Amino acid sequence: MAFLSAALVVVGSGVIVLNATGAFDRAESGKSTAPSPVPVPVPVSSTRTKTVAVPVEPTGAATPEQPQSQQPSSPVVPPVRVTSTATKYVFPVGGCRADASQSHHDYPASDIFADKGCRFVSPVDGRVDEVTRVDSWSSKTNVGEDRGGLSVSVVGVDGVRYYGSHLSAIGAEIKPGLAVRAGQTLGLTGKTGSAQATPPHLHFGISWPTPAGHWWIRRGAVPPQSFLNAWHGGRQLSPVALVAKTRRSYGVDRGCRSYC
Ligand SMILES: [Zn+2]
Known about the structure:
Elements: H1 2-8, H2 24-28, E1 51-52, E2 80-81, E3 93-94, E4 99-100, E5 110-113, E6 119-121, E7 126-132, E8 150-156, E9 161-167, E10 169-170, E11 179-180, E12 185-188, E13 201-207, H3 215-218, H4 225-232, H5 240-250
Bound molecules: zinc ion.
């Protein structure tokens, strides 16, 4: 759990957040609509934790001396991590007009229609979960695990997994385990996988973390619309409670249940 507290502290430390103010369209309107170059530059700072020096001196001078053998071998007082209690959420498409579908076929998700080459950004601070860089989808087989084409999932500091697929490119540095921040670019929108025959869009799913390869959960397990709508409007709304409730009702995962 050290990761959670470590990642939380980046909130408010100068990360550029596209939609926190709801000004995502306006703020980006002056920029070129040309796709960003690939690989996507991802400004990951090496310093993700703030530490505060805690006075070593105990209050008062009445503390009796202790034998050296009872002292911890590590430095006297460990640094205290500064944590934020609030998770910050941002809309997962940045730099472009984006229209999130208010329903989805067969299972809960949203298709966020946006031009090819728009930035798919992490909606939350967290760590990269799974990355699929090869598009293996074929219309002849339509294999379920291939439908997403190029995809990235992130497990947020809130314990929720966020998934975006049909990407045209993924940042070279985006690998499982990488710490990412809300608003950080993960890849670019596109139409890989089963989106080859549709307008470009980001398929976006919210779920609970699973072992790798459980694509039938990863693709989306709870309706994301209310959260997307809130984030797009610059409002903070957490899916944590809904994800927990849905996971309980889902029961034991024995594999794909629908649209497999
Ligand atoms: Zn979809």
